[in-house]
């Protein structure tokens, strides 16, 4: 059994309307969730396949970091799916700097965050003092690098170029893999 602590305002999202989301997570990840809505503590107990059960705490953690349940459940899509977090607070000098850094990651009208999602293929959420991402190792690494570039003060244009480059590399790798479907030679 593992214990995960999530913010109070995310408990309702984890439980869902009438417990719907909680039941879906329990069924999909083959775990049992014991949620203490007083302090935000969630006990995750594996009741089925232990490999699927390992993703249970990650799903709860992802929802706690601001992901909608549908995105968090993507962690079960295949064994390669990862959930990772960048701590914006750690890269900030003070509260005002954290607001500025968060603003740089979100971008005007959310455009920077959207581009990170579009060009990497990962799900990206900025919540509280963290940037969370869910995707394959390559997708997560691309978002993490882009976020770290922005936090280090890189111009947005340079970060967008980097993301475009990574997007094309990932697309090209996918093309290489499926190169000659039906070619028997």
Automatic annotation (TrEMBL):
Kindly give the Pfam families that the UniProt entry links to this protein: KH_1, KH_PNO1_2nd
Q: Keywords of this protein's UniProt record, alphabetized? A: RNA-binding
Where does the sequence pass through the membrane? Answer: none
The family database entries (SUPFAM superfamilies) matched by this protein are listed as: Eukaryotic type KH-domain (KH-domain type I)
Locate the K Homology domain: which residues? 1-65, 80-152
PROSITE patterns linked? KH_TYPE_1
What the entry lists under CDD domains is as follows: KH-I_Dim2p_like_rpt1, KH-I_Dim2p_like_rpt2
Question: Per the record's keyword annotation, is RNA-binding included, yes or no?
Answer: yes
- Matching NCBIfam families, A to Z? arCOG04150 (TIGR03665), PRK13763.1-4 (NF010329)
Q: What is the protein's given name?
A: RNA-processing protein
Q: Which organism is it from?
A: Natrarchaeobius chitinivorans
């Amino acid at each position: 059994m593992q214990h995960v602590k999530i913010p109070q305002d995310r408990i309702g999202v984890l439980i869902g309307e009438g417990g719907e989301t909680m039941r879906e997570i329990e069924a999909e990840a083959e775990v049992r969730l014991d949620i203490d809505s007083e302090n935000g503590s969630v006990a995750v107990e594996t009741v089925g396949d232990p490999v699927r059960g390992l993703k249970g705490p990650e799903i709860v953690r992802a929802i706690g970091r601001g992901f909608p349940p549908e995105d968090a459940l993507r962690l079960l899509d295949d064994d390669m799916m990862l959930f990772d977090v960048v701590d914006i607070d750690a890269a900030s000098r003070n509260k005002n700097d954290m607001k500025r850094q968060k603003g740089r990651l979100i971008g005007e009208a959310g455009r920077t965050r959207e581009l990170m999602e579009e060009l990497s293929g990962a799900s990206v959420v900025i919540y509280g003092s963290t940037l969370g991402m869910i995707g394959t190792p390559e997708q997560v690494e691309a978002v993490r690098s882009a976020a770290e570039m922005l936090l280090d003060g890189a111009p947005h244009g340079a970060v967008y170029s980097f993301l475009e480059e990574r997007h094309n590399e990932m697309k090209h790798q996918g093309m290489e893999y499926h190169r000659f479907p039906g070619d028997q030679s």
